[in-house]
Amino acid sequence: MSLTELLLRPLLGSPAKPLITHYDDKQGSRVELSVATTVNWAAKTANWLVDEFDVEPGDEVAVVLPPHWQTAGVLLGAWWCGARVVTETAGARVAFVVPGGVSDAAATAVVSLHPMGLGLPAGSVPDRAMDYLTEARLSGDQFSPLSPIPGDTPALGSSTVDEVLAEARSRASSLGLSADDRVLSTVEWTGKEGILAGFLTPLAAGAHLVQVTDADPAKLASRREAERTTADLSS
Question: What mean pLDDT is predicted for residues 14-28?
Fold first, then answer.
């Protein structure tokens, strides 16, 4: 079973439960995703990766993005179709980058990071690149891998599905996190460690992740109060 299914399946009984709340203090935005909406974006991404780029289990998908609700959909979609998430673009079947980002991958998907989920402005998509949000939102809302994803499939860097899940659960347990927690995080999702610490650990616990990007330290106390957070994660 894919890492995404293993992470999200325990949460499907409460589809309306908030799962990810994303603040971007530089943009002044707040976006909240329920379990159902998160699953929907992951499914669209997985379908797009398979249909557009023929991604198969073990293929490298580079994710060079900041912590963001759109990054969550990219990561979960990549794992759902069995991709190995890496953070270097060279050799990847497809790379997800920010506008203006550099990619040496076979194909490049530019993620707008627009707070409301708008795609790139007309005429701004670079040559030989694709607009992730505009393209992927046309894909199906449900996804099933063509075949089961074995637990020994590479999922994050050199670590397998089973290893990544075990590490994320271990970290969540050591922090005392549970599905009742609301976790405020300012961790950058940079490299394997950042993705594990800032994204996968709260998700493995079934906790509500309140991710703050480009955090303004002066606003963190009010974020904790408004979101009723119970735990903090920081770099």
Answer: 96
Distance (Å, rounded) from C-alpha 213 to C-alpha 209?
A: 12
Q: What pairing do the DSSP bridges indicate for beta strands 18-24 and 29-34?
A: antiparallel
What kind of fold does domain 3-233 have according to CATH? Rossmann fold (3.40.50)
Which residue ranges make up each domain of the chain? 3-233
**Considering only 14-18, 31-35, 124-128, which range has the smallest mean pLDDT?**
124-128
What's the sign of the alpha-carbon dihedral 158, 160, 165, 171?
Answer: negative
Sheet-wide strand order for 182-185:
29-34, 18-24, 208-213, 182-185, 231-233
- Cα gap 158→50, rounded to integer Å: 22
As a dihedral over the C-alpha atoms of residue 228, residue 177, residue 73, residue 213, rounded to 10 degrees, the angle is 50
